[in-house]
């Protein structure tokens, strides 16, 4: 009896040891095997999830439809609110900048909004929402917090037309801020301005800042016009010209300031 | 009734011309929607109405434009009248022919209006800028014209199906 018990015990002990060994080996292997196994199971799992979702979709179709409509409405409402908030934020930033210029400037300024543009491609004109009633007169300079925009050419009771500096009809006397070299800045109907009548030996180089000279009565001295991006010789070779990138992006101005005397 | 709806279409497009169309500029150039309206009127309405709408379009254009008032009031009826006369001799019944016609009219309109401006003492612009604007504007206007034709037909003039 005792030898039989001993034999069973020995067998049990060996089995227990093997079991523990297998457990230890598998426990150390499981984390290593989990990732590839799950990776291989991903496709059938996805397939099953898809079937479950589709079946749920069919069963709860009406509930989902109502919920979907409600959520779409909510999204549209939130999107609208987001747009309004963003618009207010941008407007606030622009007005803050305008106000800062208004506080810094020693002259009286009238803030106005751009409401329309020229219908043709041969002029660069904008219409603003302030007119004679607000004290605007033809000839006044128009600026933003970034720099010179143009001048008022026509006024009505509550609207005015302003000619932007990229219109070829508009000429502004400008100087190079660094060397005080004078020239006449006019528009090209594009995204750049041209400074003409620069002497052959003029001290001007790329990246120079151009400001108003104050010689044109309408424009106060020191308004930022733009930065020189290229210099060339006129066809006659008697003078030079400089291509200027305007300080203000004239294609998307929304608010302006009119400098009143 | 149809004529007054057409007038409304012109007024609407003139507002678009000076507001939203600025966002659709290609190389700083936008199409001339009012000129397209005049061509539509020329190929689909009686002569007296063609002239009326051309003057109305020119008037609206001149209101927003700077410089001498009245150039467009003179130019647009001229193009309307000439298109009307041409449409009696040549069939302008498909998009491609209308596009070619509008392309040519925009070029002539731009050349004529620039010459008048120069005659009135406005400064000249460089040849490069002139050519860039004239080519792009005529192309752009011609390309959008089928769309404008369809929009006007659908929204404003549903009974124009037979004429344009």
3D architecture notes:
- The complex is a heterodimer of chains A (261) and B (164).
- Chain A is of the alpha+beta class and 261 residues long.
- Among the domains of chain A are: 110-164, Thrombin, subunit H (Beta Barrel); 171-260, Rod shape-determining protein MreC, domain 2 (Thrombin, subunit H), CATH 2.40.10.350.
- Chain A has two helices and twelve strands; from the N terminus they run H-H-E-E-E-E-E-E-E-E-E-E-E-E.
- In chain A, strands 1-2-5-4-3-12 form a six-stranded antiparallel beta barrel. In chain A, strands 6-7-8-11-10-9 form a six-stranded antiparallel β-barrel.
- Chain B has a single domain (2-160), classed as Arp2/3 complex 21 kDa subunit ARPC3.
- In chain B, helix 2 (33-44) crosses helix 6 (127-156).
- Chain B has 164 residues and is mainly α.
- Chain B is globular, with a radius of gyration of 15 Å.
- Chain B has six helices and no strands.
- Helices cover 74% and strands 0% of the residues of chain B.
- The model of chain B has no long low-confidence stretch (mean pLDDT 83).
- The A-B interface holds A 115-123, 125, 127, 153-154, 161, 163, 167-169, 186, 188-191, 251 and B 14, 17-19, 22, 25, 28-30, 32, 34, 60-61, 64-67, 110, 113-114, 117, 122-126, 129, 133, 137.
**Rounded Rg of chain B:** 15 Å
DSSP helix count of chain B?
6
Strand content of chain B: under 5%
Number of helices of chain A: 2
For the record, the CATH architecture of chain B stands as Orthogonal Bundle
Question: CATH topology of chain B, which one?
Answer: Arp2/3 complex 21 kDa subunit ARPC3
Largest sheet of chain B: none
Low-confidence stretches of chain B: none
Cα(first) to Cα(last) distance of chain B is 18 Å
| Level-1 CATH class name of chain B | Mainly Alpha
Largest sheet composition of chain A: 6 strands, antiparallel, barrel
């Amino acid at each position: 009896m005792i030898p039989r018990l001993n034999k069973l015990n020995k067998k049990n002990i060996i089995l227990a040891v093997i079991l523990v060994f297998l457990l230890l080996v598998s426990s150390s292997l499981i984390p290593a095997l989990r990732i590839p196994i799950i990776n291989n199971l991903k496709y059938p799992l996805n397939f099953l999830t898809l079937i479950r979702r589709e079946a749920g979709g069919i069963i709860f179709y009406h509930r989902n439809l109502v919920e979907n409509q409600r959520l779409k409405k909510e999204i549209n409402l939130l999107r609208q609110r987001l747009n309004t908030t963003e618009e207010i934020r941008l407007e606030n930033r622009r007005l803050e900048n305008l106000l800062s210029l208004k506080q810094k400037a020693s002259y009286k300024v009238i803030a106005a909004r751009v409401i329309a543009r020229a219908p043709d491609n041969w002029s660069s004109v904008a219409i603003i929402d302030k007119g004679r009633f607000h004290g605007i007169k033809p000839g006044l300079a128009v600026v933003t917090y970034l720099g010179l925009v143009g001048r008022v050419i026509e006024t009505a009771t509550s609207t005015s037309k302003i000619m932007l500096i990229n219109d070829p009809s508009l000429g502004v006397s400008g100087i190079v801020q660094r060397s005080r070299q004078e020239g006449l800045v006019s528009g090209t109907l594009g995204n750049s301005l041209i400074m003409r009548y620069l002497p052959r030996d003029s001290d001007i180089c790329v990246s120079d800042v151009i400001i108003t000279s104050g010689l044109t009565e309408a424009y106060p001295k020191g308004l930022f016009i733009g930065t020189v991006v290229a210099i060339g010789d006129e066809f006659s070779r008697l003078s030079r010209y400089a291509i200027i990138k305007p300080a203000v992006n004239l294609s998307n101005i929304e608010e302006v300031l009119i400098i009143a005397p | 009734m149809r004529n007054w709806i057409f007038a409304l279409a012109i007024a609407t497009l003139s507002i678009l011309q000076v507001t939203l169309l600025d966002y659709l500029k290609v190389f700083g150039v936008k199409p001339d929607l009012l000129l397209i309206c005049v061509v539509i009127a020329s190929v689909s309405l009686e002569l007296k109405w063609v002239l009326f709408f051309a003057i109305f379009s020119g008037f609206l254009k001149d209101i927003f434009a700077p410089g001498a008032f009245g150039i467009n009031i003179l130019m647009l009826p001229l193009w309307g009248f000439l298109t009307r006369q041409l449409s009696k001799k040549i069939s302008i019944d498909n998009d491609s022919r209308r596009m070619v016609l509008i392309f040519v009219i925009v070029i002539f309109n731009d050349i004529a209006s620039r010459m008048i401006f120069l005659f009135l003492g406005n400064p000249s612009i460089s040849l490069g800028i002139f050519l860039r604007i004239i080519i792009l504007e005529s192309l752009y206007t011609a390309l959008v014209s089928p769309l404008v034709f369809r929009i006007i037909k659908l929204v404003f003039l549903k009974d124009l199906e037979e004429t344009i």
